[in-house]
Design brief:
The chain is mostly beta strands. The protein has strands at about 5-15, 15-20, 20-30, 30-40, 40-45, 45-50, 55-60, 65-75, 80-85, 90-99.
Length: about 100
């Protein structure tokens, strides 16, 4: 896997429109930590893991409603892409580039 550490400008296509947060990712072996800053404020990444080429993590939104987002993404060079499970609201796509 290419180096994923650093900042990423991403777009998440949600039922409430496109969100454009900035991801800050740090890896340590198979552990993934960081944060996601956007219109909803800054969310800490939870349960972050690196498994081969796949990054997974969760983030808990409290506004406009309490929901746990579940991310699964892969990095290819300076591109990141994947999906976000939105609880009862289905799934959204995520794509972005290194900042």
């Amino acid at each position: 896997m290419s180096n994923v550490d650093g900042s990423w400008n991403v777009e998440i296509n949600t039922p409430m429109g496109t969100q454009k947060p900035t991801l800050n990712l740090t890896t340590d072996g198979t552990n993934l930590t960081g944060s996601m800053a956007g219109d909803q404020g800054t969310l800490e990444l939870e349960d972050g893991k690196v498994d081969g080429d796949v990054l997974t993590w969760k983030a808990s939104l409290t506004q406009p409603m309490a929901i746990t987002l579940e991310f699964s993404c892969s990095v290819n060079g300076d591109d990141i892409a994947g999906t976000v499970k939105l609880g009862a609201f289905g799934e959204a796509t995520l794509k972005g580039t290194r900042a």
